[in-house]
Amino acid sequence: MTTNGGFEPVFCTIVPPHVLDRLAQHEDSALSGPARRTLERDAYERTHRRLTTVIGAPAVAPPMGAAADRPQRTVYDAEHRQDLPGTKVREEGSKPGADATVNRAYAGLGATFELYLKAYGRTSIDGSGLPLDATVHFGEGYDNAFWNGEQMVFGDGDGEVFLDFTIPVDVIGHELTHGVTQHTANLTYFGQPGALNESLSDVFGSLIKQYTLGQTAAEADWLIGAGLLAPRVTGTALRSMKAPGTAYDDDVLGKDPQPATMAGYVRTGRDNGGVHINSGIPNHAFYLLATALGGRAWERAGQIWYDVLTGGELSSQAGFEDFAKLTVAAARARYRESEEHQAVTKAWQQVGVRTA
Q1: Cis status, amide bond into 85, omega within 30 of 0
Q2: Annotated catalytic sites, by residue?
Q3: What secondary structure, in 3-state letters, does 74-92 show?
Q4: What tens digit of pLDDT does each residue of 252-300 get?
Q5: Using CA atoms, how far apart are residues 35 and 23, in angstroms rounded to an integer?
């Protein structure tokens, strides 16, 4: 259950609709065809998610005798069809096979489980040992990855703009964190609450990558989806937390539209009110906090964000100022009037979000 009276019917993808919209209009069918098919499938999945929320999804419990400190992973192969979950190809405890995509999905599910358990004492994304299921090789040239409220799904990409969506571990962590948000604050997926929803997934997706690589805040690249863009694309990733608005500048994809501060806040009716765009602002605030504190970002900076996400005081309709004030309060509660408290306050000031 959530802290806000039920699940928000959210269907969350890693590639924003505005990116696919632009690709779908391209004159080259090798680019526009996969994007159009992806948009059509995403629309179907979005509707299915709403219906599942209304009707109710079947409850899933951990297997009998499952250890609380171990993930319960199952990876399925859709074999380029779109029927979920597909054919089971790897389950918990089985050895790696010849399919690198399956192995990456399995490892990414495990990395996400481990970060939440080891850093925050959370058992799986629901806090109660929820099994982690993923489907790979979804569709033909499917240009996305998503969390549908029950499982992860990965496309192989079109090979022209996007590569295999299991390549960046932060993409896996990002999407599974939507599940954590679903089971905790349940942030509405529109406007500022939706941008916070997206930002939290970027934050913890990045922390999962840093944890996996053993990186400090100073060593991390703070990119979301590095390695996902094909060689022909002029860009490094989908988003940059360090420098929002600089992840790509490409003749096909256009320029990364993310603002770093409230001075650049984008008001739009597209993308659920710009949830993938304005998330750059809280993303940048977290980057500023983490690098100011130094060391391993999941420890102090991540702990503060996690305390707010799971603390029960974050409204499903929270805006940036609401969230910022709660992070200041959480830093004070955990660390008193300290370096952490001062750094949180300063980070939000730097991006133009009030905390007082």
Answers
A1: yes
A2: 175, 276
A3: EEEECCCCCCCCCEEEEEC
A4: 999 999 999 999 999 999 899 999 999 999 999 999 999 999 999 999 9
A5: 6
CA-nearest of 96, 102, 162 to 133 is 102
Q: What is the CA radius of gyration of the chain?
A: 19
User: Phi/psi zone of residue 263: left (φ > 0), alpha (ψ -120 to 50 degrees), beta?
Assistant: alpha
Confidence class for position 12, pLDDT limits 50, 70, 90: confident
Contacts of 206 (CB under 8 A, 6+ apart): 170, 173, 220, 222, 224, 241, 297
pLDDT of 239 over the 90 cut: yes
Position of tokens 């495990």?
110
Comparing CA positions, the residue from 16, 76, 12 lying closest to residue 45 is: 12
Any bridge partners for residue 153, and if so which? 135, 146
353, two tokens: 């979000």
User: What would the two tokens of residue 253 be?
Assistant: 């994809």
The kind and range of the H/E element at 194 are helix 191-213
Return the H-helix or E-strand segment holding 240: strand 239-240
Contact by Cβ (8 Å): 234, 251: yes
Helix axes 100-120, 169-182, angle to 10 degrees: 50
Backbone angles phi, psi at 262, to 5 degrees: -65, -20
Residue range 259-268, pLDDT digits in tens: 999 999 999 9
The three-state DSSP-derived secondary structure of 321-355 is HHHHHHHHHHHHHHHCCCHHHHHHHHHHHHCCCCC
CB atoms within 10 A of CB 214: 8
Torsion region of 48: left, alpha or beta (phi above 0 gives left; psi -120 to 50 gives alpha) = alpha
User: Could you please report the per-residue DSSP string of 230-269?
Assistant: -TTSSBS-SEESSSTT-SBEETTTEE----SSGGGPPP-S
**8-state DSSP, 267:** P
**What would the two tokens of residue 197 be?**
């929803």
Q: Which tokens hold the place of 25?
A: 């209009």
More confident site: 57 or 37: 37
**DSSP 8-state code for residue 289:** H
Amino acid found at 149? G
In 3D space, the residue among 174, 166, 107 whose CA is nearest the CA of residue 142 turns out to be 166
Distance of CA 151 to the CA centre of its chain: 13
